[in-house]
Amino acid sequence: MPRKATTPMMEQYYQIKDQYPDAFLFYRVGDFYELYEDDAIKGSQILELTLTHRSNKSENPIPMAGVPHMAVDSYVNTLVEKGYKVAICEQLEDPKKAKGMVKRGIIQLVTPGTKMAQGPDDSQESNYLTSVVEKAGGYGLAYSDLSTGEIFATHVKHYAEVVNELLSLRTREVVFAGNLSASDRDRLQKANITVSEPAELEGEHAEISYVQQKLTDSMEKAAVRQLVVYLLATQKRSLAHLQVAESFEIGQYLQMANTVQRNLELTQSATTGRKQGSLFWVLDKTTTAMGGRLLKQWLSRPLLSLDRIKQRQQMVQALLDDYFTRENIVDSLKGVYDLERLSGRVAFGNVNPRELLQLAKSLEATKLIIQALAESGNPDLEKYGQGIDPQSELAESITNCLVDQPPISAKEGGIIRAGVSEDLDKYREAMNGGKKWLAQMEMEERQRTGIDNLKIGYNRVFGYFIQVSKGNVAKVPQDRYTRKQTLTNAERYITPELKEHENLILEAESRSTDLEYELFSQLREAVKAHIPALQELGRQLAALDVFVAFAQDAEEKNYCRPSFSSKNEIAVKNGRHPVVEAVLPAGSYIPNDLVMDEDTSIYLITGPNMSGKSTYMRQLALIAIMAQIGSFVPADSAKLPVFDQVFTRIGAADDLYSGKSTFMVEMSEANEALQHASSRSLVLFDEIGRGTATYDGMALAGAIIKYLHDKVGAKTLFATHYHELTELDETLPHLKNIHVGATEENGQLIFLHKILPGPADQSYGIHVAKLAGLPRAVLREASSMLKRLEAEGAREINPSRQQLDLFSPVEVVEENPLKAEQEELLDEISQVNLNEKTPLEVMQLVADWQQALKEE
Ligand SMILES: Nc1ncnc2c1ncn2[C@@H]1O[C@H](COP(=O)(O)OP(=O)(O)OP(=O)(O)O)[C@@H](O)[C@H]1O
């Protein structure tokens, strides 16, 4: 950066800026944060600020932009949301008292992964920072949400797993120590993940050993250390709310690549990126933000442990069976605030009086929850309640200390109850006494002077004064009153005794607010000691919230409790797709069975487009995932294996970040499944091979099926339009054909959405094209080509001769060919909207058409 000015302040600025070259430097000057040089130019564009210049008169004025300090949060937020970092530089001493240049320093580096949640909109969003270290045997990974202080750690062998984990976690920032390929760096950036360098920090920090205490793996320890060091170095304060890191094995959960999670729309719709339209949207009946976040976590990490799944199911069952306990819990949960994030604010020291009271209220609500569980009469619920510690003493100490409706600010008094501190009570008495004295004085002065509208007032500049309206000035006792201020209609005076009492009152007031702040800070410190217990409580209530939500889902939507098969068989009776069911009018979803015995591994699904093949396939995956997070499932009954992995190649939600072509993505996803699936996995392949020439595609699809059949044995649903493949059931004993039914009535295609045994007999593609409103000429051309191909016997055609001479006019045999004009006429007829026409207009139209036909 060119150095242009050499004033002492700019010198200081450059020194600080040099330490944070990749961050926007918000440099505090009085009531503003100023940006200079490139930061100002870029910042003014992004934040829509006016770009001005410092030292305008010099030859090289410095570009400058500023934001008022009161509004700084929203500007910082905008930059960080866009993936930038912001270094906040404060004045570290009072400018009035400073000798020479005011000392300044960075108090916090805000980065995408360390942003604290701002508004209610992101209360269900976790904001993750991930740390990756590369070691000889693999990679250590740790991630944390700073607002809640939770930390998770794991280790993986392969680089590809690291990148997948970062993408599926949707981390906002990664601190990467190791080799990150340029293409992956690019990929992460496109996914809005900021890549940062590790930070350095001197000395030992208690937080590090505290959070590492349960870890045994050296890679995980290293990743966690790097994570905490980065947090400490950027936040520049102690972080008492960081939780003991939980180690997990990726293989401990059902594994799904991030593309699979996206394709199945578990937490966001693939088209809009929003919650609506996702499985999370359907299931999220949680009351608290903590519950919502936990449900989201569960959705991306379904369990493998049958014991844990059953434990969850038992809680859901108990709550489903007991409507009143459930309602009581929901009512009380409404009074529970975000304990995890409140703990974070306590640790950061920015929790305000109102929030501390919210904390106490949440603890009181917790007592009611425990009571409801205890009175339920159900042993599982009772036991759960017994494990919860409502922190009664803490609740009491907060409510005993704070007034019922404290203000947000801790610095303006009015927070602490009477009786908490003798000194405070004394100051308050003095203030009250002083105010009473003023009222008395006002009365006496009115009598003495005979001025009825004389009053005593206060302003910040002059303090207390006696105000007399202009008409009464003659009555003012000039010997006792000193004039202080003249207004249009009145004069203001002071007297020595008024000033004397003013001093007493103001001093008592300032001592009182100072003392209140001190008492509040003590309370805040006392709460700090309870942070780990509050976090544990938060986790327990969040889980309870999700169980209640599952019970409510089960009741409202008629979900059943799935059972699990150790014999690798599937038996779903009347299964439904939870999301499609939720958006269709009630009762119109057509349920389907899916029964796959131990001996069958592949269902080959045929049927017209739009008939419901994808829906049927996804339905199974969603039911399996719901079952493995402990939820009940949309079916009359369901028996499933515990799947270890889910693979998909579905639809057109291609990986926009990978820079690969559609066909390449298709093949990569197929490859994932072929390489990594086991006999305990679930594989969904929708129209594999459609992205290339017909025979290529068909051959690939056939070979893939055979490989899955012979070598993998995973439960596979394979939808295809290649009818030729349905003959595979003759040679592959573990493969069966099923199809989605459709019938034709009066030339119209009717979708039955019903799964039936055996292959489909027709493909109906042209019917669907007709539904989509394609021009008749195209439909007709397609129909005749189809006839021709069928006549030639497409299967006999030499597969190497891929360039069929489809358009050869000689070979197209047509009965009664239509003229182009007639085609157009037919298109016109089919497009007339009868609802918009009067009978007379229709008659006129028919007359026109008849005329046109005669002319041809
Ligand atoms: N069981 C069902 N009950 C009611 N409606 C259904 C059912 N299954 C699917 N549908 C409806 O049919 C639409 C098309 O389904 P889907 O996308 O699964 O078809 P498809 O056979 O996979 O089509 P394509 O081959 O073109 O991909 C869905 O959006 C849904 O509205």
UniProtKB/TrEMBL annotation:
<keyword id="KW-0227">DNA damage</keyword>
<dbReference type="InterPro" id="IPR045076">
    <property type="entry name" value="MutS"/>
</dbReference>
<protein>
    <recommendedName>
        <fullName>DNA mismatch repair protein MutS</fullName>
    </recommendedName>
</protein>
<dbReference type="Pfam" id="PF05192">
    <property type="entry name" value="MutS_III"/>
</dbReference>
<keyword id="KW-0547">Nucleotide-binding</keyword>
<dbReference type="Pfam" id="PF01624">
    <property type="entry name" value="MutS_I"/>
</dbReference>
<dbReference type="Pfam" id="PF05188">
    <property type="entry name" value="MutS_II"/>
</dbReference>
<dbReference type="InterPro" id="IPR027417">
    <property type="entry name" value="P-loop_NTPase"/>
</dbReference>
<dbReference type="InterPro" id="IPR017261">
    <property type="entry name" value="DNA_mismatch_repair_MutS/MSH"/>
</dbReference>
<dbReference type="Pfam" id="PF00488">
    <property type="entry name" value="MutS_V"/>
</dbReference>
<dbReference type="InterPro" id="IPR000432">
    <property type="entry name" value="DNA_mismatch_repair_MutS_C"/>
</dbReference>
<dbReference type="InterPro" id="IPR007696">
    <property type="entry name" value="DNA_mismatch_repair_MutS_core"/>
</dbReference>
<dbReference type="InterPro" id="IPR007695">
    <property type="entry name" value="DNA_mismatch_repair_MutS-lik_N"/>
</dbReference>
<keyword id="KW-0067">ATP-binding</keyword>
<dbReference type="InterPro" id="IPR036187">
    <property type="entry name" value="DNA_mismatch_repair_MutS_sf"/>
</dbReference>
<dbReference type="InterPro" id="IPR005748">
    <property type="entry name" value="DNA_mismatch_repair_MutS"/>
</dbReference>
<feature type="domain" description="DNA mismatch repair proteins mutS family">
    <location>
        <begin position="681"/>
        <end position="697"/>
    </location>
</feature>
<feature type="binding site">
    <location>
        <begin position="607"/>
        <end position="614"/>
    </location>
    <ligand>
        <name>ATP</name>
    </ligand>
</feature>
<comment type="function">
    <text>This protein is involved in the repair of mismatches in DNA. It is possible that it carries out the mismatch recognition step. This protein has a weak ATPase activity.</text>
</comment>
<dbReference type="InterPro" id="IPR036678">
    <property type="entry name" value="MutS_con_dom_sf"/>
</dbReference>
<keyword id="KW-0238">DNA-binding</keyword>
<dbReference type="Pfam" id="PF05190">
    <property type="entry name" value="MutS_IV"/>
</dbReference>
<keyword id="KW-0234">DNA repair</keyword>
<dbReference type="InterPro" id="IPR007860">
    <property type="entry name" value="DNA_mmatch_repair_MutS_con_dom"/>
</dbReference>
<dbReference type="InterPro" id="IPR007861">
    <property type="entry name" value="DNA_mismatch_repair_MutS_clamp"/>
</dbReference>
<comment type="similarity">
    <text>Belongs to the DNA mismatch repair MutS family.</text>
</comment>
<dbReference type="InterPro" id="IPR016151">
    <property type="entry name" value="DNA_mismatch_repair_MutS_N"/>
</dbReference>
